Amino acid sequence: MQFWKLQGCGNDYIYIDCFRHPVPHDPAGLSRAISDRHFGVGSDGLILICPSDKADARMRMFNADGSEAEMCGNGIRCVAKYVYDHGLVRKPALTVETGRGVLTLDLEVAGGVVRQVRVDMGEPTLQAERIPTTLPGNPPANAPFRLEDRDFAVTCVSMGNPHCVIYVDDITDDLVLGVGPRIEKHPAFPRRTNVEFVRVNRPDDVTMRVWERGSGETLACGTGTCAVAVAGVITGRTQRRLTVHLRGGDLLLNWSETDNHVYMTGPAVEVFSGDWPD
Length: 278
Description:
Elements: E1 2-8, E2 11-17, H1 27-35, E3 45-50, E4 57-63, E5 68-69, H2 73-85, E6 93-98, E7 101-110, E8 113-120, E9 143-147, E10 150-158, E11 162-167, H3 173-184, E12 194-202, E13 205-212, E14 216-218, H4 222-234, E15 241-246, E16 249-255, E17 262-267, E18 269-275
Parallel strand pairs: 2-3, 4-6, 11-12, 13-15
Antiparallel strand pairs: 1-2, 1-18, 3-4, 4-5, 6-7, 7-8, 8-17, 9-10, 10-11, 12-13, 13-14, 15-16, 16-17
């Protein structure tokens, strides 16, 4: 089975072209095997690029643990790059069907290949029961959250998948690798959650690390940066236009006052291709 590896800000996935190849019979199991960084190819998960009857392509995304997620911001930019660069659809603007709905992507093309993609990520979901979380508030903003002997103030947003944003003075391994997985599986989040730890540098500039639901710490999380952009405005910490520094690179965000949509701009890079034994 032929595969391609692409990454956006270091958030790397294995991609299968299901326009030209059959859908794997067990994508969850394949994701667990192929994502393993010691015994597989190594990635944050698996993404299937499929035909769609309502968009130019359909994206199905599986985390490294095999769980299927609704959406991946870095992953969808790479879907657009693959679709354009490999000639499936050659248009400067593409639509991609996701678990979040159909999203529109504007491509920045240079030398015949996609270098950067701007994604209309749609409106944030702020109702607690739809995020979902049992924490109070619509949305829960600076909500008190006790984790055994530690207290946090958390802000929850969904960008098609759930996020829990925590602002801190110093982003440490103890927080990301210790607290992150415990919050991910906390009962307050019935479908688990992604966890973002954020330091505000300026009202238009933040630094972030993320513990991703089903994958652990990743170098970047596109939907997470969107959630951080929304949470910053809601809590009065940041502006609507925001640069987010991640371990794998920078993403540019804009939560538009005009249409309430969040727009994310960032790179998409093809790393290599190969064959995986069936």
